[in-house]
Amino acid sequence: MYKYNPRKRRRPDGRPAGRALKGYVLPDERTERLRQRIRWRRILIVLGLVAAIAGAVALYRSPLLRVQEVQVVGIANLTPEQIADLADLEDASMFNAPLGDAEARIVALPMVKGVDAKLDWPNKVRIEVIERTPWGYWDLAGTSYVIDAEGVVLPDIKPSEGAPVIHDTGDPARLSPGDRVDVDAVALAQVLLQSVPEQLALNIVRLESRPARGLARVTDADYRVVMGDSQNVDYKLAVWQTVEEEIGRGAMAGHVLDLRFGDRPALQ
Hints:
Elements: H1 29-61, E1 69-73, H2 80-87, H3 99-107, E2 112-120, E3 124-131, E4 134-140, E5 143-148, E6 165-168, H4 183-200, E7 204-210, E8 214-219, E9 224-228, H5 233-247, E10 256-258, E11 266-267
Parallel strand pairs: 1-3, 4-6, 6-7, 9-10
Antiparallel strand pairs: 2-3, 4-5, 7-8, 8-9, 10-11
């Protein structure tokens, strides 16, 4: 009886098949050249990446691309040295100079309203400062503090002669540079100092700020007007003008006109 032996494979013509050979296929010359080119290309890519990284590190550490000069512009009362020292950017890398931190330190100065720091390649930083300017005085318990148009107390500077004075009749307190007084009262005072002479032909001889009543002013017609806050100021001015026309400026002398309640003016 015939038994199939898988080890004895036969060819299609019936002859026994030969044993398979194990080993490596030798590439031809063209294939070998192609392999070498691929190998060298990979090596060059790796070398290029290493060179690029080394070059970037060298540039980062190079003194040529580090902050060597800080230029300060826009100042009149502060000094460039004061701003540069506060910025603390000398020798910082141009790639990651902490400009935001420098701006935060500078704008914290009472005299600084705004600041913008920019890189000036290859090794400079330009800092543009907007200083606060004195607007008037805030008189509290007999002490006059210089303030700007936003109510910020300023140090070691005076406004121009004849600057407005707002008398705070509230509780005594001590103010320091950088503190803010009643911003709304300061803003309203600026509007009234311009609008009242134009619309009512009156001059304001005294400005007062009271916590409960807001801003009041004494006119050169010898009567006081309580405005409250700065809301609806145009309407309050129109009501003021109407009351004057109906009652008469002379008859209002010695009285107080309360305009805090809009269309319900009160003459006391």
